[in-house]
Design brief:
By secondary structure, this protein is α+β, with helices and mostly antiparallel strands. Helix content is 40%, strand content 23%. A hairpin with a 2-residue loop joins strand 2 and strand 3. Helix 1 packs antiparallel against helix 4 and helix 3 crosses helix 4. It is globular and about 75 Å long.
Length: 327
């Protein structure tokens, strides 16, 4: 086996091993043209356990016998893109500005691979390196992977997900040299960082644009806060605790977007101006599996007010980076 082919087989095995059996069955097997019944039978005949690593081993054996080096490289790139689309990773939202094409969405989607390749070849890039572009549509989003490669070197991969026809995209990196070129291939002159990042693509798009959710009412604006007596099963609550709980539920909504990070920054005067007459920059990073749930818990415990600006990340600020101005 040629070294290049052997390396690709190892890459393929690594990708398939990271996929769950559900993802492998739904997204990977159609790429090989085989059925779940055939692969599971081959796993049992090999006396291997029913785990992703066993399926990866069987599929890699199948690919090495039926595909040449070019087909194998193309398969690895497509499956890597599918894996990225289903895995948890950090994504950054960008706003696409100054459109320069009037092509319909369906025409632009079909021409997108060639547009990206042409844009990368036109731009000044590393010598002796060619662009490799993979595009796949999963649900309502188009996922794109772009990488510059040569016979001896492979550049970093840039991943992009965008809802067709909308001036917004989520990208895997804001510092990739390929990003500006890819934005032009999407039909826009430039882009702007929306200061919104997270690990769930759909949650980020729901915060950025409320039309991307079926529960948009709670994202349209903040309800009025006016503490009133609240009737409970055991009587009437005059403390305002039950009212605060219901108010926070209205703010967050029935299906809140999932964010895992919140960054708070502020500038305050030094406590003793005679010793240091300067402003001190303060930064607080909050990391949680679900920021909305954490803020909800804090509000119920009285740690923050139900009207805290921290809840504005879903409504007004639409960012998980908040700056507090000194009063």
């Amino acid at each position: 086996m040629q070294p290049v082919t052997k390396n690709k087989i190892l890459d393929l095995q690594s990708i398939l091993t990271k996929m769950s059996l559900e993802v492998c069955c739904g997204l990977a097997l159609p790429e090989f043209g085989v059925t779940w019944k055939d692969v599971s039978r081959a796993v049992r005949n090999s006396r291997l356990p029913m785990v992703p690593a066993s399926f990866a081993r069987v599929l890699c054996r199948f690919a090495s016998k039926t595909m040449d080096a070019e087909e194998l490289a193309d398969l690895v790139a497509r499956l890597r893109l599918k894996l990225i689309a289903t895995q948890t990773r950090t994504w950054h939202v960008i706003t696409l500005l100054d459109p320069h094409t009037d092509q319909p969405v369906n025409v632009l989607s079909r021409a997108l691979p060639s547009r990206v390749i042409q844009a990368l070849r036109t731009a000044k890039g590393p010598r002796n390196m060619r662009p490799e572009v993979q595009i796949d549509k999963l649900g309502d989003l188009v996922y794109i992977s772009v990488q510059m490669t040569s016979e001896i070197k492979e550049g970093a991969v840039l991943y992009i997900a965008t809802p067709p026809g909308q001036p917004v995209a989520v990208v895997s990196s804001l510092h990739s040299g390929l990003l500006k070129t890819c934005v032009k291939a999407l039909g826009y002159e430039k882009y702007e960082d929306a200061n919104l990042n997270g690990r769930d693509v759909h949650s980020l798009l729901r915060i950025y644009n409320t039309s991307n959710t079926d529960h948009a009412d709670h994202l349209a604006g903040l309800p009025e806060y006016q503490v009133l007596p609240y009737v409970t099963k055991s009587g009437v609550d005059y403390t305002g605790r039950m009212y605060d709980e219901e108010y926070v539920k209205k703010i967050i909504g029935p299906d809140p977007p999932n964010l895992s990070k919140l960054t708070l920054t502020s500038e305050r005067d030094f406590f003793d101006p005679e010793r240091l007459n300067k402003k001190i920059k303060l930064t607080l990073n909050l990391r949680s599996e679900d920021v909305a749930r954490t803020l909800h818990s804090w509000a119920l415990k009285g740690a923050i007010s139900p009207t805290s600006e921290l809840f504005y990340i879903f409504h007004k600020i639409k960012s998980n980076k908040i700056t507090f101005n000194a009063e």
